[in-house]
Every structure is written in structure tokens, then in C-alpha cells.
Amino acid sequence: MEAAAAAGASEDEIKSTLNDKCTFGLVISGREGGLLESDLTNVLLRTNSSRGNFISLDAGILLSGIYKFVSSETNNQTFIKLLFPNLPSWLSSVDMSSLKTTSEKNQYYLSLSGYIMKQFILGYFIGHAHLDHLSGLVISSPEGTFMDTSTKDYQIPSSKRIITSTEVISAINSSLFNDKVWPDIPKYTPWYQYQPIEHNINYYVNDLIYMSPNSFNPKIDTHQLIGSNYLFSDTTVKSFSLCHSLPSAAFLFEHDNVQLIFFSDTGSNTYSSCDWRSKITAVWNAVDISKLRVIIIEVSFTNEAQDSELYGHMRPKDLVLILKELSNLKGDKLSSLTIVVTHIKPTFTSTFSESAQVLIQKQLQSGLKEASLDCAVTIPEQGQFLCFY
After folding, report:
1. Three-point CA angle 207, 171, 31, nearest 5°
2. Is the CB of residue 242 less than 8 Å from the CB of residue 233?
3. In a domain? residue 352
4. Comparing C-alpha atoms, which of 258, 339, 342 is closest to residue 294?
5. Angle, helices 316-330/276-286, rounded to nearest 10 degrees
6. What pTM, to 2 d.p., does this model score?
7. Does 3 reside within a domain?
8. Burial level of 12, CB count in 10 A (0-12/13-18/19+)?
9. Residue 264: CA atoms inside 13 Å, Cβ hemisphere, count?
10. What contacts 297, CB < 8 A, 6 or more positions away?
């Protein structure tokens, strides 16, 4: 894992990291598991060939998470310009010292965040239909269109695809974009289109974000259908069914011989007959451990939570258990792997030094040591940027 925006890094050093040590780059725009409306699950993913464009992994938060990212003191203006090389001059050439008031600075960051959200997020991979993984997509939908479709360097998709299973599409369509809770934006505008995918089938990401759904058969169109002049043409994805309190999914991405797995919510649920462990075993069986570098996965509760309180979520001991299974299946101690822990549910505690995050970090470190696993673990901050290669 590399920090592309390390304090004091020069422009050449940032370029080198983004080009050579950032096969997958992640903006952690949302990392928590509920309660705080300003910090819900959302990870933006880029590759070293996506030219500053991203796909969204879940979308519990969008604009406010991007705002947190661009306004973070660790992400200086040089880094933002290099990360988004196609920013228009009215954003990229701003002299921050000329912004004298807090209001001016806030408006700059808001305009920058809005442009990034509208222009550089090409599609949404949604794992499941709970509101804390979708509210950002819904609330931002009136501004879902691209700002500039005339770019000369690459093709802009005709719309932004909501890429997920048919079960999740049905839930979004009937419960959110339904003209009752929220206007049916996919019906009234060309900004969003649903792109159903099947589990356990390998797709090229560019097919999913560029091809019209009515010209793409997700059951059989597993070979690359459009050319390499489209973004994410060298990135593949396969989804897997997961257990939660409703259908959920994991996404296995591969780019430049590096693999990354994003898990939407999953875990034990005493009120369901779904075998959550066997679902995860199926994911493990599909990975190439020599290529796997990062797993983004939830740990919602501390080890003190009872099975009956999990409702399809995990504790540190559950994560250690499934990582030990991965290690045993592949005969590997996972020393090349980083676990990015998300979806921690904040607690109201009178012991201020023992937040849920602090306890989960300690319990994970202890559990991994006891299990003789060598993987690294990070619990990122909201607005952090991470690189993996």
C-alpha cells in the first residue's frame, strides 16, 4: 500500500506513485456503517490507466464524501490536479491564496467536488439495496449528468450505469426511484440506466459502463465487446452472491495482474438460513492469491456482540475466521495482502478512549497474531486516498 499524497511529496514523486505504485487507487469517501449521515459506505476506484476516472463501489454517500476528500489537508492542490488530470482550468488554475474568506474556499471545494462527482464517476457497482449504501446515489441523482461530453482524450458513456443484480435493481426501482420516496430519475432522464449482471461471470468493466443494457446480454456476453479506446477496457469484474438480511454481493476486480475484492455487507444472521461462510468460500476459491493485494470488507461490531445481534454483519473474530480459511485454502500466510476495514458502526460510550474503531483495531490485531496471519490491516479515515499494486 502506498500513500500517493504523502506530506511534502513533490509533483514527480506523486506522478511516480500514481503511475507505478497505484494499479488500484481508492478514495475512501465514506467508511462507516451507519448513524452518521455524513459518513456512509462509499469507495471510489480508479486504475493506473483510467485517466482520472473512477467507478463507485456502493454509494451511501457521494458529494459530501468527495468534499471531505478534496478539502483534506493531506490532499494538496498538486495531488488533486494530478489525480484528476482533465479538470477544467476554472478549477485547476485557482490560486488558493486568492480565496480570502471561508465562504469562498467552501464554494471552491463544493464546485470541485461537484465536478468530480458529475464528470469522473462513470458508473455505480451496488452490492445491496440498504439505504446506507444507496442514499448518496439517490440524493445526488438530480445532478447525475456529465458536465462535459466533448472530451477529446476518451469516450464518455452515454449514461451512468447502476450495475448490480436483478434483485437489487428491483429493490431500487420499487422502493427508491419510485415517484413516491424519490422521483424516478432513470425513467425521466438519460442520466442513469440499470445494468443487470449475473453472479459468477467475468465481465469487462468497459462493457458494463459503456454498452446499452438492451444490447448487452449479461448471461452470455462475457468476452470483450467494445474496443480498448474505452476507459476500464483492461479491467475485469466478477460478482458473487453474499448473505446479509437481503441479497448482497462481493465484486472481484482484476487489472494489470492485480486483484481487489470489495465486499458489500455480509456476515452471520441467526434469522436467516443463508450459509454466509459457504458464500465467502466461493469467493476465496475464485481468487488468485499471487495477484490478490487488497480486500475491502466490513467489520460492524466488536467481538462482544452476540450472534443474535449481528443481522448479517461481522465482528473481528469473524473476519479472522474467514481470512484463516483463505490462508488454508491457498497455502499462504497472506503477507502480500492488505485488509481495508469499513462499515464500523459508531457507539455512544462513556469511555472516550475506547471507541468502536479502537476496540476493533485491537481485537483484529490480536486475532490475526493468534491465527499466524501476516496480512496488513488498515481502518482508513474518511477522505483518505490509498494505492495498491
Report:
1. 75
2. no
3. yes
4. 339
5. 40
6. 0.95
7. no
8. exposed
9. 32
10. 261, 263, 314, 319, 339, 340, 341, 342
Residue 167, amino acid: E
Residues in the chain: 389
Give domain status of residue 218, yes or no.
Answer: yes
Residue 4 belongs to a domain? no
Measured between alpha carbons, how far is 59 from 328 in angstroms, rounded to an integer?
A: 33
| CA 306 – CA 309 distance, rounded (Å) | 5
Helix (H, G, I), strand (E, B) or coil at 78: helix
Q: Which of 320, 330, 235, 233 lies closest to 287 in space, CA to CA?
A: 330
Domain containing 92 equals 11-388
Cell numbers 454466509: residue: 276
One DSSP character per residue, 1-27 reads: -B-TT-TT--HHHHHHHHHHS-SEEEE
For helices 102-120 and 63-70, give the axis angle rounded to 10 degrees.
120
Q: Is 227 exposed, middle or buried (0-12, 13-18, 19+ CB in 10 A)?
A: exposed
How far apart CA 122 and CA 162 sit, in angstroms, is 10
CA atoms within 13 A on the CB side of 258: 22
Q: What is the pLDDT along the chain (389 residues), one digit of tens a residue?
A: 666 665 578 999 999 999 999 999 999 999 999 889 999 999 999 999 999 999 999 999 999 999 999 999 888 899 999 999 999 999 999 999 999 999 999 999 999 999 999 999 999 999 999 999 999 999 999 999 999 988 778 889 999 999 999 999 999 999 999 999 999 999 999 899 999 999 999 999 999 999 876 666 777 656 667 766 789 999 999 999 999 999 999 999 999 999 999 999 999 999 999 999 999 999 999 999 999 999 999 999 999 999 999 999 999 999 999 999 999 999 999 999 999 999 999 989 888 888 999 999 999 999 999 999 999 999 999 999 999 99
In the chain, the number of structural domains is: 1
Q: For residue 145, what is the domain's CATH number?
A: 3.60.15.10
- Burial annotation 142-155 (CB, 10 A radius, 16+ → b, else e): eebebeeeeeeeee
